[in-house]
Amino acid sequence: MDCLFCASFGDSMNTQFVRLYLKGKFSKNIETLKLLPISSKFGEIPLSTIAKLKRHLTFAKIERDKLLYSLDINGYRAKRPVTHLTDDTLKALKDANISDIQMEQTGDIAQIHDSFKRMLKAIGLGVIILIMALIAIYKSVRMAFIMIVVLPLSLIGASWGMLLFGKPSCMPSLLGILLLFGIIIKNAVLLIDFYQEYRAKGESSFESAKEAVRVRFRPVMMTAFGTIAGMVPIALEQAVGLERLSPLADVAIGGLLVGTLLTLIYVPMYAYVFDKK
What we know:
Blueprint: E1 2-7, E2 16-21, H1 30-34, E3 37-40, E4 43-46, E5 63-65, E6 68-70, H2 82-96, H3 108-138, H4 141-148, H5 150-165, H6 171-200, H7 205-235, H8 246-274
Antiparallel strand pairs: 1-2, 3-4, 5-6
Helix pairs in contact: 3-4, 3-6, 4-8, 5-6, 5-8, 6-7, 6-8, 7-8
């Protein structure tokens, strides 16, 4: 038999629960427990004379974290994204109007949040280094930013791809954004490189932009559709062992379809607008 008592340890501490375990003939039931002999200055007396015993539901397990009572809630998922489960849990707690509690998330969701922060920092640092490299290579701040400005436009297609396939934002999708940025910036570099080559020959900015698109149209489209063709089995989850990477393929397909088209339109247009001489 085990019992749960409330014990007070002076005025400086809160009331604490103490669990006691009893073995022997007095632990059979609550009636025999009342007869448990307690030594006193008057001799042995039954426990019932100095204590009140009753049955009630209590905690099966008491845990503390940083001197606070804690309750660990574990969950397992099959197919639903852990981010969706976490959002549903937070909404349920908010609707329950539970106050005076501290909630801390651990496990997969905590790792995801940490990974997201690290990945976003890596993407931001990569864009900054890329801008600095483009400025140094082309010796033009305007041309560097013309090539960079198309990157946010490619995210339009990436978002559409994830919505179309019904995939959540996750680590594979962030990796897909890195892959997408690499291909889009390569196409933009090809266009600007040919644009500056024609400008060096004395062509006008309009003719240079038009010729850059005409000459590099086929290589740009081959790169985009070649990558898309390779990503289709992964996006459809038909590649054995790569099912978890389907968000990466969704981002790449949607981003390349839209981003490649916008690259062929906006990069020459911006070059023509900001390089009129």
